[in-house]
Design goal:
By secondary structure, the chain is of the alpha+beta class. The protein has 4 helices and 12 strands. The strands form 2 sheets. Strands 1, 4, 5, 7, 10 and 12 form a 6-stranded antiparallel β-sheet that branches. A 6-stranded antiparallel β-sheet has the order 2-3-6-11-8-9, with no helix packed on it.
């Protein structure tokens, strides 16, 4: 899997754009627009106050939530990440998905559906919320059919009892009928056969399959399962 990203770390901005008393409502940096509504202010916190670099922040006056709206480049992206400071946040994507993050922490999100915008909400009246090192890009998932075929090749290369090898390969071939057809909506059906593969590998681990080989086969199968579910 690959990800190509653009990162805005907010460090060294010239000029220092907004103080705590600025009234800016939005700004576009590296193709991303950060904005607040009429009841909030957008500003940059001086380096060293909360983090080693300047961070973009939204502050709300007289209400309980601090919300920062982020609009991504036209067409959306499939991968975003950023550092969270000061307050825990709930992130709501344009896809409808929600993610929670504590503070300080790093939050990374990938999506198979392009993300066009997101809302970062530090609820609970914390007073201020901030993010830094905002990165976005496009996540390219691995070729699941190729991953399964590689797993079949590894099973073939192992010095296994023929009965065990045939049983494992039968489960992988069944999974391959879903993963390697022309309809991606069938991919999730492969998880059942891959789970049966995992169960058999676990049952034979240390017996007819060496422990190192069992760990390797299980890890590769689990990666495919995680991607199709």
């Amino acid at each position: 899997m690959t990800t190509s990203t653009v990162t805005e770390d907010f460090e060294g901005l010239t000029p220092q754009l907004f103080s705590d008393y600025g009234e800016a409502k939005s700004i576009t940096l590296s193709g991303v627009t950060f904005g607040v509504d009429a009841s909030r202010r957008l500003f940059f916190i001086q380096a060293g106050q909360y983090a080693p670099t300047q961070v973009i922040s939204a502050q709300q006056s007289g209400t309980s939530d601090e919300i920062l709206n982020v609009t991504l480049p036209a067409g959306g992206v499939t991968s975003i990440s950023f550092d969270v400071f000061i307050c825990p946040v709930v992130v709501t994507l344009s896809t409808g998905e929600q993610f929670a993050a504590s503070a300080p922490s790093f939050l990374g999100i990938t999506s198979t559906v392009p993300i066009t915008h997101l809302e970062i909400n530090a609820n609970g009246g914390c007073g201020t919320q901030a993010v830094d090192n905002f990165a976005y890009g496009d996540f390219t998932p691995p070729d699941l059919c190729a991953s399964l075929q590689a797993l079949q090749g590894r099973v073939s290369d192992l010095p296994l009892n023929p009965g065990v090898a045939n049983s494992l390969q039968a489960k992988l071939r069944a999974a391959g009928r879903d993963l390697c057809d022309a309809d991606p909506s069938n991919d999730s059906h492969a998880a059942n056969n891959l789970s049966a593969f995992l169960h058999e590998v676990s049952a034979q681990a240390g017996k007819k399959i060496s422990l190192p080989d069992a760990v390797s086969l299980s890890t590769d199968a689990q990666i495919i399962i995680d991607l199709v579910q």
